Amino acid sequence: MQKIIFYSVIIFLTACSSQKKLHKSTLAWEENFEQKNAFDTTRWSKIPRGNAEWQKYMSDFDSCYAMRNGKMILRGIINNSLPNDTARYLTGGIYTKDKVGFGLGRLEIHAKLNGARGAWPAFWLLSQGMGWPDGGEIDIMERLNFDSIAYQTVHSHYTYTLKIKEPKQGSTGPINPHDFNTYAVELHRDSLVFFINNKRTFAYPRIQTDKEGQYPFDKYKYYLLLDMQLGGSWVGKIDPADLPVEMEIDWVRFYEFKQ
Question: How much is the pTM?
Answer without folding.
Answer: 0.90
